[in-house]
Design a protein that fits this description.
Layout: E1 2-6, E2 9-13, H1 17-28, E3 32-33, H2 34-41, H3 49-61, E4 65-70, E5 73-78, H4 82-98, H5 102-112, H6 117-131
Antiparallel strand pairs: 1-2, 3-5, 4-5
Helix pairs in contact: 1-3, 2-3
Length: about 130
């Protein structure tokens, strides 16, 4: 298993798509119990409570979540922010598929989904800030 250090936290990678779905809930609402996480996910996923608890346990093992005992249950809190996780994950993705180059990645996104006027304006602003 490989590891990444993100903002001083060791996170064992790879985080699967299902685990990212769980992380998404906890990034939006930090510090929830397993039942609350399962309830939030029930709107989009047909997962049992046991499946959610397994995913939570994997994320704790990987260092992406911490736990705190609250009576008879545990509360789960992300140890890394979405932004801090997204940076290395995006760089890894770009490296694997595009040799680490940003331009082909952006071009691929533009061709596939298209870019909104807002996306283009944000990219232009980013490019201008990188030039200065």
């Amino acid at each position: 298993m490989t590891t990444d250090v993100i903002e001083g936290k060791i996170v064992k990678t790879k985080i699967s798509q299902s685990e990212l779905d769980v992380m998404d809930v906890l990034w939006r609402e930090p510090t929830l119990g397993a039942t609350e996480v399962a309830n939030r996910l029930a709107e989009k996923k047909d997962w049992s409570d046991r499946t959610v608890k397994t995913l939570l346990a994997r994320l704790v093992e990987k260092g992406a979540l911490s736990t705190e005992k609250d009576g008879r249950r545990f509360l789960y809190t992300p140890t890394v922010s979405r932004e801090d996780y997204a940076g290395p994950a995006t760089r890894s993705f770009a490296k694997r598929l595009f040799g680490g180059r940003a331009a082909p990645l952006v071009a691929h996104l533009a061709e596939g989904e298209g870019l909104s006027d807002e996306d283009i304006a944000e990219l232009e602003a980013l490019i201008e800030s990188l030039k200065s």
